[in-house]
Design goal:
The protein has four domains: about 1-50, no CATH class; about 60-145, Non-ribosomal Peptide Synthetase Peptidyl Carrier Protein, Chain A, CATH 1.10.1200; about 175-220, no CATH class; about 230-300, no CATH class. It contains twelve helices and four strands. It is mainly α and about 300 residues long. It comes from Pleurodeles waltl (Iberian ribbed newt).
């Protein structure tokens, strides 16, 4: 291109090529000069081209061509240009047909391959145009999808307070201001240590709280003592025994005498026992801590 732009003739191109190539080109030109000096510019150009061009195996070059595939980041035009470079050393009989076949097999876009195969005949130029159109549509769709999925940033606004919100806020403030300690009954949080720390409650006898905030079940109003009827006995002389009142622990136990043959007498569990050769009718033990016997029964044996 430099020689064309400068319109130099062949006589001047030879020394200019050696000058621009430098000492390395000058040494190579001496080794390829088989005619002996002086040699022409065309001969020097062909000799240098043959020297720098690597030796190619046509079979291996055709193998590389048929293995070529388009990566996702490569455009269809770049892929087609790469196929041309691979085909230049293959010595193919019909380069255009081979390039079209390899372009269809190796293109990345599946939709492009389907559209090409749908047409009976399609030129290479139309394939490249269709491929470029597919690439642009895919890129534009990806940009639109990314923009639609991007969250919209909301601008802050001042909301209008409602009466319900004001009442709720006022209630929360009141609850915060009126918080009390559940151990001493004073305001919480404390400025220092709680006043009930280490104090004993007079109601439940436990530490670390006052009586006025005691939550023990024993703090409830005491119930009146219960009165229940104790087990009943039968006396042998059919006389009423003395009532024995036991008022310990707030419970009164009452013992009544019954007449034999009565309705209650028939329902109670009883049995006959022999005490010093004398038959005595007695109640079956109901789990009481003591056994009771009539005084008239014990007098003869005491």
């Amino acid at each position: 291109m430099y020689f064309v732009a400068t319109t130099l003739d062949n006589d001047h191109r030879h020394p200019m090529l050696l000058h621009l190539g430098g000492a390395a080109i000058h040494k190579i030109s001496k080794s390829v000069n088989e005619e002996g000096p002086p040699f022409t510019y065309q001969y020097l150009k062909s000799a240098l081209t043959a020297h720098f061009e690597p030796l190619a195996n046509p079979d291996y070059e055709r193998f590389l061509l048929r293995q070529a595939r388009q990566p996702p980041e490569e455009s269809v035009h770049t892929f087609y240009a790469r196929l041309w470079d691979l085909a230049s050393t293959c010595t193919l009989p019909d380069v255009e047909d081979e390039l079209q076949a390899q372009f269809i097999q190796g293109c990345y876009l599946v939709k492009l391959r389907e559209n090409i195969l749908q047409a009976p005949v399609m030129s290479m130029a139309n394939m490249l145009t269709l491929g470029r159109s597919r690439e642009l549509s895919k890129m534009h769709a990806a940009h639109m999808e990314a923009a639609l999925q991007k969250p919209v940033k909301a601008e802050p606004v001042n909301a209008v307070a409602t009466a319900h919100a004001e009442r709720r806020k006022s209630k929360q403030t009141t609850n915060t201001m009126k918080r009390t300690c559940y151990t001493c009954g004073g305001s919480y949080p404390h400025q220092g240590q709680c006043l009930a720390q280490g104090k004993r409650c007079t109601n439940c006898n436990k530490l670390n709280h006052f009586t006025k905030v005691c939550r023990s079940t024993s703090s409830k109003t005491s119930k009146p003592p219960k009165t229940r009827q104790a087990a009943q006995i039968h006396t042998s002389d059919d006389q009423e025994g003395d009532m024995d009142d036991d008022e310990s622990e707030g419970t009164v136990h009452v013992i009544h005498a019954m007449q034999p043959g009565g309705s209650l007498w028939k329902r109670i569990p009883k049995c006959n026992i022999q005490v010093v050769e004398k038959l005595v009718v007695a109640l079956i033990d109901t789990g009481a801590s003591i056994n009771i016997m009539a005084l008239q029964v014990m007098k003869p044996y005491s």
